[in-house]
């Protein structure tokens, strides 16, 4: 029961998550308006928790006796400027080189932060032009990675559930969409559960090492990524010179974007694209190559492998332990998004019945 309450609490709070409109209207005046401050404090709590956690992780790169002069402010503030200042302060290269954490220049470092700082140091030693390559940019990158890697995965899972509830034989951002898909097609979760139990015998959780032996579960993850496409608007770039793409000539300085939602709903590759259908990848094993939900090339999302691993583990273990369906005498939740004007493709509120099966 306690486990169920934790799951429900998390799903309920997801709908109160920060939206693009909160950021658009936020300033020192609107923050004082009745009701707005309370909403901001609620939604910003997630950012505050992340802020404190990230600070503790990155602070290990500084000397043990090194203290931030604004330690108390940094613990509670959700001001992004404070965050950038904190990271810039504790990520001083000279202090890292002589402090608690050692940068391994020969092997490229232990992680992304190390690799970034090593490259930055090399550029400075060669007196190369740095541009935006500095500690402030590192702070922004870390925040981007955290936000992009959590909210999108959560939304994808919710959409899966909605699809699964609309067709009772399938069961079991992108987590929110997973729920919606699964609620619209209940047999899916049954197939996922059967595959999970065939591997674990119900005696343990599904692990990443099981992935090569779970083709249907892998197909579910791929279809979740195709159907969710949680970013309504892809990031805008600009042509630096006149460019030819197929039969089209794009002039210099023209804003461009790769609208993945169009590619992932092309009926040439995906017949009946609005249908959540993992079997399409079982029938055509090469079709998975067409699902470029994370982009391609040097602009591709760096978190693809992590996102796929998260979806695989969360969906498989959730379906193995729980059976979910629409509440009695109710229909499955709609699969249309809350609004196409939001930055993320968000689900509508919905109810579901959750039963522990293992």
Short description:
Heme binds at residue 301. Belongs to the cytochrome P450 family. This protein has helices at 2-14, 20-25, 36-59, 71-76, 80-90, 93-98, 112-125, 135-165, 175-184, 187-200, 215-228, 260-263, 279-283, 304-321; strands at residues 237-238, 243-245, 248-250, 255-256, 322-325, 353-356.
Overview of this protein structure:
There is one protein chain. The chain has a single domain, classed as Cytochrome P450 (Cytochrome p450), CATH 1.10.630.10. Helices cover 49% and strands 5% of the residues. By secondary structure, the chain is mainly alpha-helical. It is built from 14 helices and six strands. The protein has a two-stranded antiparallel ribbon. Strands 2-3 form a two-stranded antiparallel sheet. Strands 5-6 form a two-stranded antiparallel sheet. The relative contact order is 0.11.
Termini separation: 13 Å
What CATH calls the topology is Cytochrome p450
Please identify the top-level CATH class. Answer: Mainly Alpha
CATH architecture: Orthogonal Bundle
Please tally the β strands and state the result. 6
Radius of gyration: 23 Å
Net shape: globular
Structural class: mainly alpha
The proportion of residues in beta strands is 5-15%
N-to-C order of helices and strands: HHHHHHHHHHHEEEEHHHEE
Number of domains: 1
Uncertain runs are 14-26, 62-95, 164-172
Largest sheet: 2 strands, antiparallel
Count up the helices. 14
Percent range of helical residues: 40-55%
Organism: Steinernema glaseri
Cofactor: heme
Keywords: Heme, Iron, Metal-binding, Monooxygenase, Oxidoreductase
Pfam families: p450
